Amino acid sequence: IKTSPFQVGERVMIKSGDLRKLVGTIESLTKGDEEESMASIRLETSNIPSPVNIPLAFLERIFKLGDEVRV
After folding, report:
1. Burial of 9 (0-12, 13-18, 19+ CB in 10 A)
2. Helix (DSSP H) and strand (DSSP E) numbers for the chain
3. Distance (Å, rounded) from C-alpha 56 to C-alpha 30?
4. Residue closest to 56 by CA, chosen among 27, 35, 25, 28
């Protein structure tokens, strides 16, 4: 997705919906208009089958100590 703020392999947290506050890694992105673009997320929790498809609007990028960040 050329206009997506996310990339495959990034760690994200779900900020809305039933799965909010869960963390995972983006496995793939599906192109659509702004409201229909989706990400396939491999969750870090083991009690929910992964991957799950989540709208990009429900995601926020997260970082952990030691991650390299460019601004």
Report:
1. exposed
2. 0, 5
3. 9
4. 35
Pairing of strands 11-14, 23-30: antiparallel
CB burial of 17-47 (b: ≥16 within 10 Å; e: otherwise) equals eebeebebbbeebeeeeeeebbbbbebeeee
How high is the pLDDT of residue 34?
64
| C-alpha distances out from residue 26 to 2, 11, 37, 58, Å | 15, 7, 13, 13
- Please state whether beta strands 23-30 and 38-43 pair in parallel, antiparallel, or not at all (unpaired): antiparallel
Query: Pick from 16, 27, 3: which is nearest to 60 by CA?
Result: 16
Q: Indicate yes or no: pTM above 0.85.
A: no
Q: What is the mean pLDDT of each run of 10 residues along the chain (71 residues)?
A: 77 92 94 81 87 93 86 81
Both structure tokens of 26: 């983006």
